[in-house]
Structure formats: C-alpha cells, structure tokens
Amino acid sequence: MTTPHNSERRVALVTGGAMGIGAEVCRRLAAAGHQVLVADIDLDVAQATAQALCATNGHAAALALDVGRPESITLAFEQVKRVHGRCDILVNCAGIAKVFPFIDFPLDNFIATMNINVTGTLLCAQAAARLMQHRRWGRIVNIASVAGMRAVGSGRTAYGTSKGAVIALTRQMAVELAEHGITANAVAPGPVDTPMTQALHTERFRQEYSKAIPMNRYGTTGEVAAAVMYLVSDDASYTSGVVLPVDGGFLASGARGL
Fold first, then answer.
1. How many Å apart are CA 14 and CA 22, to the nearest integer?
2. Backbone angles phi, psi at 140, to 5 degrees
C-alpha cells in the first residue's frame, strides 16, 4: 500500500472509530501516515483513542459525530472542511444492533437501526464525497455484514435488513461517484470479537455460529481492518462496487461435517 508523503497527508474519517473495528481501522490508517479523525458519538472514548494514536507518533483527532442525527453530520463535516479543507477517506463503521423475534419486532428499533446504519451511512458518504470530488480522488468503505447477504440466526430483522441496504447503497454510490475519481466498496464481516458482539451473542450462539464457519472461530478486528486498508489504498484504484466478505468461509459453506 502506498503511504502518502507528509505534504500530501490524506485525511481519513472513521465513523464509530472509538472502539471495535473502527478503532482498529483508525490505528492502521494512522500507522500508514494518514491524518485520522476518530468520529464517534462518545467523544470521551474517541479522544482517548485519538490520544493513544498520537502517543505512537500517529496524527489523530477526535470528532463528535452522531450518525443518527443529520444536523450532527452536517456540523462534523463543516468542521472537517474548516480545519482540514479536505476529506480523502471515509470508513463508515458506526452501527447498532438489537435482536427481537420477527413477529414482535418493535417498530421504533427497526426505524432507529435503519436511521443509523443506512441513512447515517448515506449522509456521511454524501458529505465526504462533496469534499472528495474537488481533488478527484476518494475512497469510501462501508462496513456491512454477512447478515446483509444471508440470514444469520433469529432476531436480526432490522440489522440484517439494514446491512443489505448498505450493500445496495454501496453499489449505487460506486456507479455515481466513479466520474469524480471516488471508489465505494463494502466489507462484510462475519462474526468478530467486538464490544457489540460480546454484548449481543450468547455463549450458545457463539458456539453454534462458529460451527457454521469453516475456520471454526470468530474473526478479529485486525482481519477486518486489513481488508479496509486495501480498499482505501492507491492499489485499489480499479476496485469499486464490490462487497468483500471477511468471514472465515461462512458464506461459501453449506452443510458441514458430512
């Protein structure tokens, strides 16, 4: 992967960057020499993440951003434009998930999940693309999920639907942003050890999910972040509109143990 020269240090914004996959993406972007904006609704944790990156000679700053509120997105990107004058890389990691039986799935949670996971991704991508188009170079990576490509257990009516929508949105973005020199891709993780999955997945669910994965384990945030780093690199200049599963072979697998 090409590392930018300091005089042309790229500005990379990661939503949901304070913890989990987002934090690991921030770490790798900083190590690659980018100016990293750790954007998160939890500003205190985002600041701690940014400070940790700066302590290892990275260039990072925290940015308050609630992707569920359009006005927060507007304010955040206005600050990015005012302070940095550019946004070259956007990684949309922010998301929520809760599980309920389909028949009783609460409408308020369905709406909230779609608002944050899909509408928030849309609005952040629009704001970033407006800045990217002036330099005719940009990379947008949306974190989707295998749950958007295949039903994963019960209770994920909102989450799976939202991630399927993110995948469709990514393809539309890729088509329309190509003329501006911007690529748009998605990474679809399988189960990964993050604060979200630790809270959401019971021990029985973890065991059963692992059995459905040829590698028989959950992934790591580093394995997902590595895929993101390819897609934001100069080497991925002809890669756009793809959905890259990072799932230990889960989507490829059918009946196992035969």
1. 6
2. -120, 125
Residue 159 annotated to the active site: yes
Provide the 3-class DSSP secondary structure of residue 185: strand
- CA dist., res. 184 & res. 42, Å (int): 26
Residues 6+ apart with CB under 8 A from 30: 36, 53, 56, 58, 59, 60
Angle at 49 (CA atoms; ends 46, 53), nearest 5 degrees: 135
Does residue 76 sit in helix, strand or coil? helix
**Whether the model pTM is above 0.85:** yes
pLDDT tens across 108-148, in order?
Answer: 999 999 999 999 999 999 999 999 999 999 999 999 999 99
Catalytic residue among 159, 209, 218, 230: 159
